[in-house]
Amino acid sequence: MESAIQLKSVDISFAVHGAKPFRAVAGADLNVAKGEFVAIVGPTGSGKSTLLNAAAGLLKPSAGRVELGGQELSGLNRSAGYLFQADALMPWKTARDNVAISLEINGVPRREALARADEWLVKVGLRGFGDRYPHMLSGGQRKRVAMAQVLIRDPEILLMDEPFGPLDAQTRLIMGDLLLDLWQQDRKAVMFVTHDLEEAISLSDRVVILSTGPDARIIGDFPIPLERPRDVSEIKLTPEFQTLHRDIWHLLKEQVLKAYGYNSEKRA
Ligand SMILES: Nc1ncnc2c1ncn2[C@@H]1O[C@H](COP(=O)(O)OP(=O)(O)OP(=O)(O)O)[C@@H](O)[C@H]1O
């Protein structure tokens, strides 16, 4: 399958004042094909966000390279749309304007941008909410606006960093279903960071496991051959899901325990 984004032997180190550089991620090799949904899971501090930031071009690898369709990425990754845990809505703009701005900054005339923003608000289930300001929306509704804001630009790659992290469990499931619905219509390559293994399995085609940092490595790469379309709450009840969960958790648990050990030693 054709590659959308590829990390080749990527190391990422941070300068630390008065100490030797801190190598968060070491030797990461990851190839995400066009149309593939890959989840990245690992204990806290294992470098999930760091890897995503390298894919976004926000961080430059200290060794190795990031490639887009075979070309080395330099500077910002302009073919990617980025959805963070905290949404980036502008409080002084309505939901409609928050979505339309994504097109307006690329030169789309305002009338057209507003018309397309309205279509996207319908797609994310917010018909009739266009005139509301972010503070008049629930957390889940704001997340829908943020999703429309990213998807309206039609990015080739979606980079998502715990996008549903702050939401309650029920809303997370609903947002997972919405994401899969939209993704099915027009498959993008997705890198989806989460610490929630159930969420990772229920959404993705592959689950990649990072070891505890520093020097975190990719230590597992599991295909998820569950049928699509999926219902993210129903799929968890199937024996296939449970077998996958057991196998992957076996590997992840060890790292999670190590992460706690490492942190408690550090604290002591
Ligand atoms: N700018 C920075 N300077 C120094 N160290 C950093 C910097 N950014 C991240 N780190 C370190 O790199 C490691 C990986 O951080 P990262 O945020 O990628 O982890 P994560 O897996 O996304 O964690 P979490 O699940 O807790 O969000 C951590 O040990 C963190 O302290």
TrEMBL record:
One MF annotation (Gene Ontology) recorded for this entry: ATP binding
Listed name of the protein: ATP-binding cassette domain-containing protein
Can you tell me which family this protein belongs to? Answer: Belongs to the ABC transporter superfamily.
Q: Note the InterPro entries from the entry.
A: AAA+_ATPase, ABC_transporter-like_ATP-bd, ABC_transporter-like_CS, ABC_transporter_ATP-bind, P-loop_NTPase
Keyword check for ATP-binding, yes or no.
yes
Per the record, the domain of life is Bacteria
Q: PANTHER family under this entry?
A: ALIPHATIC SULFONATES IMPORT ATP-BINDING PROTEIN SSUB, TAURINE IMPORT ATP-BINDING PROTEIN-RELATED
What is the scientific name of the source organism? Paracoccus aestuariivivens
Residue ranges constituting the ABC transporter domain according to the UniProt record: 7-237
Which keywords accompany this UniProt record? ATP-binding, Nucleotide-binding, Transport
Alphabetical list of CDD domains matching this protein: ABC_NrtD_SsuB_transporters
